[in-house]
Design brief:
CATH topology: Na+/H+ antiporter like fold
Number of helices: 18
Number of strands: 0
Strand content: under 5%
CATH class: Mainly Alpha
Largest sheet: none
Shape: globular
Structural class: mainly alpha
Order of helices and strands: HHHHHHHHHHHHHHHHHH
Length: 330
């Protein structure tokens, strides 16, 4: 059975499936959930610290100044997703119902993920400096843009209460470790460079922790009981279709605009993902108590699907390095 699965999936993807199953049947709860959340936060901070130590000042400046790439990622995140969702309203709203449709519109308005987008970009040997800048900026800008997009699409009153706290939290968890690692590059940069072959496991470990912690919280929160199985199946299919369309669109746009392979990887992973870490806390601000559950269910489903699909896609991109090892080295 395992041998047959390996025909379609590599070892990491099989481990990822096992983690999802573990979170479904043995979700972390109580003190265990707290411990895993701390471990996840530590792994994410370590990931950004190592990226800061690994990247040269020239590489970071090049990533920040790559304005064409950033504009395209922002356009995919905050323009392509809402336009796509609104254009599909005549088809999706009758199938999903009004409550889940509100959740789909909310999903479309959210910023992209940060930690998993960068981790997948790293696994696929993409443009990491640009990914760090694009994903972090997307998350920060989204804190301000998302409420206005929600208000525009739903005609609802989306205030900005608590947004400053979210900006500070993102800065402390992600940007501060990155800047600290880059500051210490002069002392630990050589060690990081010599040990990069096994330090890449930090990327994969952080993804596994994010998946288990997020999926456990979703299961504990009633992921499998919030809606009937048929509605959940339909929602999953819809999320798969949306993700497939966006993945094809981001790939086509990156190639059509003549970006190189490393930039294409960054555009695909940063422009096609939506953040549950940002979306769930923000939903409690933007929606009334009873509407929060249906509003975040599409996000939880989409988030799990994007992690699974992007894990396979990242491994596929990474395989090119076997024949182009010099080009793919950090």
């Amino acid at each position: 059975m395992i041998a047959q699965l390996r025909v379609f999936f590599d070892n990491f993807t099989l481990i990822l499936i096992a983690v999802v199953l573990a979170a479904t049947f043995i979700p972390a709860h109580g003190i265990g959930a707290t411990i895993f959340q701390w471990l996840t936060n530590f792994a994410i901070a370590l990931l950004f610290f190592l990226h800061g130590a690994k990247l040269s000042r020239q590489a970071i400046i090049a990533g920040v100044m790559h304005w064409r790439l950033h504009i395209l990622i922002f356009a995919c995140t905050f323009i392509l997703f809402p336009i796509l969702m609104l254009s599909l309203q005549p088809l999706l709203r009758p199938v999903l119902g009004d409550e889940l449709w509100v959740g789909m519109l909310y999903l479309a308005a959210l910023p992209g993920t940060v930690q998993s987008a960068i981790a997948f970009t790293s696994m696929a040997r993409g443009n990491i400096p640009a990914a760090v800048c694009a994903a972090s900026a997307s998350s920060l800008v989204g804190i301000l843009v998302t409420p206005f997009l929600v208000k525009w699409m739903l005609g609802a009153d989306a205030g900005t209460t608590g947004m400053l706290e979210a900006v500070l939290r993102i800065s402390l968890q992600l940007l501060l470790p990155f800047l600290l690692g880059h500051y210490m590059r002069r002392w630990i940069g050589g060690w990081v460079e010599r040990n990069k072959s096994w330090l890449k496991s930090v990327d994969q470990s952080s993804i596994l922790l994010v998946v288990y912690t997020a999926f456990s919280a979703a299961v504990i929160g009633g992921l499998w009981t919030a809606v009937p199985p048929r509605a959940l199946l339909v929602l999953s299919v819809v999320c798969c279709v949306i993700l497939a369309i966006v993945l094809v669109a981001t790939t086509w746009l990156a190639r059509g605009l003549k970006f190189n392979k490393e930039d294409e990887i960054t555009i695909v992973f940063c422009g096609s993902k939506k953040s549950m870490a940002t979306g769930i806390p923000m939903a409690s601000v933007l929606f009334a108590g009873g509407a929060v559950g249906p509003a975040i269910l599409p996000l939880m489903v989409f988030h799990q699907i994007q992690l699974m699909v992007c894990a396979v896609l990242a491994q596929k991109y990474a395989r090119r390095c076997k024949d182009e090892s010099a080009e793919c080295e950090y």
